[in-house]
């Protein structure tokens, strides 16, 4: 990405916003273009600045982060929205991912890691640690309605699409999927794009959770 990565920070605590501005502003390729104190203001910032990444706190007065994520992900060509939270908020995080969040970060993430993870999100990849993924998938597996919906959606996929979806559920990259299934990366990318539309998933992470719910990936 030749232009700076444009970031919007959303948190109801001004000190948190200032802290994140300082950390991200230290990277030459990242620019914090604005900050907001609730989900409604976040949507306005996204429309105004067209950022690449939004860091969204989940618990805020007024319009909360979950609602903000839903609204942003319904915009044309939405940015990657990464939830900011703590590990004691698994249920909120799971809802955020189902709403379209591209992953989540705990607020205690070290500064050097935060910068790298923002770059990862800007490149269209999932921002989710292995430990977090295990906990979220466990929570996902407890929701009977989600499992039923996932099974119904998967029935409409071709055998090859199911293979690709299973790989997404295992957290594989396009390159890894291509190697496993003996396909080109371009073909894998095409499959993934079509499946996201077919399954009404906002991103790879949502599709991966759906694969888990459908029983394609063992617990």
Kindly provide the name of the CATH class of the largest domain: Alpha Beta
Q: Strand tally, please?
A: 5
| Oligomer category | single chain
Provide the low-confidence segments as ranges.
none
- The termini sit apart by 37 Å
* Content of β-strand: 5-15%
Helix- and strand-based class? Answer: alpha/beta
Please provide the ordered H/E string of secondary-structure elements. Answer: EHEHEHEHEHHHHHHH
Count of helical regions: 11
CATH fold descriptor of the largest domain: Rossmann fold
Question: Taking strands numbered 1, 2, ... along the chain, how are they ordered across the largest sheet?
Answer: 2-1-3-4-5
- CATH superfamily descriptor of the largest domain: Response regulator
Helix content: 40-55%
- Approximate shape: globular
Identify the CATH architecture of the largest domain: 3-Layer(aba) Sandwich
Q: What value does the average pLDDT take?
A: 86
Pfam family, one: GerE
InterPro entries: CheY-like_superfamily, NreC/VraR/RcsB-like_REC, Sig_transdc_resp-reg_C-effctor, Sig_transdc_resp-reg_receiver, Tscrpt_reg_LuxR_C, WalR-like
GO molecular function, one term: DNA binding
Keywords: DNA-binding, Phosphoprotein, Transcription, Transcription regulation
């Amino acid at each position: 990405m030749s232009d700076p990565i444009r970031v919007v920070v959303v948190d109801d605590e001004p000190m948190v916003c200032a802290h994140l501005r300082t950390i991200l502003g230290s990277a030459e390729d990242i620019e914090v273009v604005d900050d907001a104190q609730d989900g409604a203001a976040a949507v306005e910032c996204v429309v105004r600045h067209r950022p690449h990444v939004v860091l969204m706190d989940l618990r805020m007065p007024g319009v909360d982060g979950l609602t903000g994520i839903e609204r942003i992900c319904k915009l044309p060509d939405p940015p990657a929205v990464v939830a900011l939270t703590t590990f004691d908020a698994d249920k909120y995080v799971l809802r955020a991912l189902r709403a379209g969040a591209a992953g989540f970060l705990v607020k205690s993430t070290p500064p050097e890691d935060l910068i790298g993870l923002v770059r990862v999100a800007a490149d269209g990849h999932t921002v989710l640690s292995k430990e977090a993924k295990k906990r979220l998938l466990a929570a996902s597996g407890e929701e009977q309605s989600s499992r039923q919906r996932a099974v119904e959606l998967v029935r409409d996929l071709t055998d090859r699409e199911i293979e690709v979806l299973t790989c997404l559920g295992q957290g594989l990259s396009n390159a890894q999927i291509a190697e496993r299934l003996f396909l080109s990366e371009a073909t894998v990318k095409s499959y993934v794009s079509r499946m996201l539309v077919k399954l009404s998933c906002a991103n790879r992470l949502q599709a991966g959770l759906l694969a888990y719910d459908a029983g394609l990936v063992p617990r």
